[in-house]
Amino acid sequence: MYTVQEAKPFHKGLLQQQKHLNLIKLVLNVNVEQTSIDEKYKSLFEGIGRLEGECNIHLKDGSIPTVYPARRVPEALKDKLQEELNRMERDRIIEKVTKPKEWVNSMVMIKKKNGTVRLCIDPADLNKCIKRPYYPIPTS
């Protein structure tokens, strides 16, 4: 069996002769076993995606902490916000902070189609100040 490594222009008559001599075969369909990624790697898509342990973020020298004020939450959504915060704290996604912190990002709440809410922050100022670790990947 031969495979084509590089496409080159060919003469149409030559293709017809090769097909007639059974030198090549035209395949119109290919049967490929279809397995979705989430089925094949099911264990990777379970749970909340939380890594165990602590993460230390190293900041660049001279970084100036930023504290953003809290954004207003519509009265109609306050209960849903509290429910989501309680759920995230219970699932150990977030933890309650009782002391002032140097870095504070404002939170945005988005209502999803199914009626629940998604909480988001934008740590752009913090991201600019992070010292990125450098891990070279061996090439050989």
UniProtKB/TrEMBL annotation:
GO-annotated biological processes: DNA biosynthetic process
InterPro entries from the UniProt entry: DNA/RNA_pol_sf, Retrovirus_Pol_polyprotein
Gene3D superfamilies: HIV Type 1 Reverse Transcriptase, subunit A, domain 1
Protein name: Uncharacterized protein
Record organism: Artemia franciscana (Brine shrimp)
